[in-house]
Amino acid sequence: MRRRIGASVRAEAARRGLRQLDIGLRLGVSQSAVSGRFVGRLPFSAEELVELADWFDVPVARFFEPVPGARPGGEVG
């Protein structure tokens, strides 16, 4: 599930042209912490997902949906 959420957040960020650094600044974490979340090594907190959903103007549930083109487990292409 962590990988699916990370892949979904990464895809939404990419659609907006945002970098890991941008996400980290918004969440108050390092770029490497964002990288860990994107690959599923670290979990996003519920608060972080709510913050990102508000910023991206999407429902939090979007982060739990499979990413088109993702392999099983959430990895993208």
UniProtKB/TrEMBL annotation:
One of its GO terms (molecular function) is DNA binding. Residues 9-63 form the HTH cro/C1-type domain. Gene3D superfamilies: lambda repressor-like DNA-binding domains. InterPro entries: Cro/C1-type_HTH, Lambda_DNA-bd_dom_sf. This is HTH cro/C1-type domain-containing protein. It comes from Brooklawnia propionicigenes. The lineage of its organism: Bacteria, Bacillati, Actinomycetota, Actinomycetes, Propionibacteriales.
